[in-house]
Amino acid sequence: MKRIIKFLFYWLPPFMWAGFIFYLSSRSGIFITKEYFWDFIIFKTFHMIEYAILNFLFFRAFYGSRDKSTDLNKIMIYSFILAIVYASVDEYHQTFVPSREGKLRDVIIDSVGAGLMYIYIKSTFRFWKRFL
Question: Whole-angstrom Cα distance, residue 59 to residue 114?
Fold first, then answer.
């Protein structure tokens, strides 16, 4: 029972966040402003934030359920790669949503967000270690 609770504690948040991203990408296109440029900037910033959070949640899950001998750099790389893979799958999913399209550009933008979180985790891990 303890293993199930530990698994849910660490892995449920990234799966729920991935589901939230999936839900958002299932919606038809929406606009915040009437200008394409500003909508593009706002939504691509949201993309970066979404995938930065996803990368952090994957890192937290891998770190919390790791074998004590697992290398920290491997955990950071695995979480980063998993976030990019999910970004690619989500963009492919968008090709099936009316008024949406999957673009390599968006995968790159999502990867930048995940990459920024990778850099953040790497540079501040000593601080965060006590919370994980």
Answer: 11
